[in-house]
Task: structure prediction
Amino acid sequence: MNSTNVIWAHAVGFLAEQLRGTCPFSYGSTINFGERIVPESEMTAFCVFAPLVLDRDDYLGIDVGLPGHEGHDVINIQGMYPIHGDCKSFGVTPDQGGCIDDQ
Result:
């Protein structure tokens, strides 16, 4: 997204917090934001896929655990790509408690 509007990043953070534990953020999943993500855009949803700006080793299997507890807290970084709501086939809003995997 070529924009200086920080609302894009805040929207992704909001979704991560609201959907933690209920949405696997799997590649191909779509997440309906429920409204325009930013006022100047018609986009109302996100598609989850691999990050475009990182190498595979830099976004998969990142251990964020404390020293001595390796392998217990492993995360993956996902890319969140804004889309027009009519481009998705499934999806739910954060207040509905999850997301739908399109695959």
Notes: The longest strand covers residues 45-49. Confidence is low (pLDDT under 50) at residues 89-98. The longest helix spans residues 7-19.
